[in-house]
């Protein structure tokens, strides 16, 4: 493990070398070049891994794949950006950038602690089997959320930054971007939670039946997390992360305390603490956006609440139906789908008038597709 860790540590060096060039391409909206860099890196990494595996190097093939990807991609970004680092000029004031970077770092560190504290507490207090069930439930939630959120953020932030001098355009962009992320993701989590009693045994086998309950609760927290992304975009694009850091430490610290006491109720209690914390984080961040003049906090809150309430209600309706019926799998799926659609139409298209914003969800799909879905470690 020591030798593997030492070699893999080179990826931090290579990723750091290419970070500035990647950010520059992203700011200049060169999404095609960013996607091409990922493709070239993955192709070279796969080639190296294949050769090493055929030569009998075993697990070193995987290590070589990661190192090759990071090194090749970073070199590509350096060439594509067309900028070479020069000597540091002390006359340039970078205090603003350092303060902004410290805010981003603070939020990310607090997120990291909260994201891993639940697993640590479950492992220490409940044992390895409950930890395995909870980790699997969280992986089912986190993988699609990370893969879709990352490219959307890469597309949205440069546009928001360029619209800071145009309040109306900024408002329109952030509302459209939120809608584009909200509806497909919340619908996916709602369907996944509602049909989990059928889907999980089929996909994972009967040995993972204990995943259902925590996964259903985690999906509610996942929906709240998705709804809160727009407020993070607003704070990030307007460089007003200072208050968010303090709030992140407070709320996510309380979330960790909730994990500890929630573990007395098992993995469902820990999942419930995550869900409550995610909802509080979303609502507080969005409400306090009123201190940011450009951000339409009220519209963001209402636009996020509509699909959240709708899909939670749909999932609960399907779960109640499946729990009260003893039908076969095909019949349960068909009738459950009708139940979900009926509730969705009544609440979503009626009370909340989601039809207009649903159409905007397609407006940035082509840009998101160009960015690519780069895998990110879940930290678990």
Class of secondary structure makeup: mainly alpha
Largest beta sheet, briefly?
A: none
Strand content: under 5%
- Total helices: the number is 15
Radius of gyration from CA coordinates: 22 Å
In the predicted model, the low-confidence regions spanning at least 5 consecutive residues are 358-380
What pattern of helices and strands is seen along the backbone? HHHHHHHHHHHHHHH
Q: Please give the domain count.
A: 2
> What kind of oligomer do you see?
single chain
**Mean of the pLDDT scores?**
83
Number of strands: 0
Distance between the termini: 17 Å
**What portion of residues is helical?**
over 70%
Shape: globular
Structural write-up:
There is one protein chain. This protein is an all-alpha fold. It folds into 2 domains: 2-81, no CATH class; 95-371, no CATH class. Helix content is 81%, strand content 0%. It is built from 15 helices and no strands. The radius of gyration is 22 Å and the shape is globular. The chain starts with a helix and ends in a 9-residue tail after the last helix. 37% of the residues are buried.
Task: Give the SSE map.
Blueprint: H1 2-8, H2 10-27, H3 31-54, H4 60-81, H5 95-125, H6 128-162, H7 167-194, H8 196-204, H9 212-237, H10 242-262, H11 267-287, H12 297-324, H13 329-351, H14 355-360, H15 365-371
